[in-house]
Amino acid sequence: MLSEGQRAGLTDDQKAERLAELTDLVEMVRPIIQQDGGDLVLLSADVEAGVVELQLQGACSSCAISSTTLQAGVERILKDRLPWVTEVTGGVDEEMDWEESASMGRGGYVPKW
Question: Which residues contact 7 (CB under 8 A, 6 or more apart)?
């Protein structure tokens, strides 16, 4: 974990570089989630503190393992490839109707309604 002094030392270029790396990595992971009718959206990122907020959408709303996908899958990938990431928060889009969400899923873990 970075100390307060190390975080304060980031230049605008370093911040932009971190955000670009994060965005590229999220874009690399999205097609995997989209194969099952879901999606992954970057909501916010504090590149100095290393805190990233993501949201799973689409069929992920009705998927029984969506929290595992976010924490054990996406979070692990981000932390492995971007050493400055310290925390990944977020969840699923709760506003989508469960029937619509279930109809989008094509993966084996999506409940059949």
Answer: 48, 49
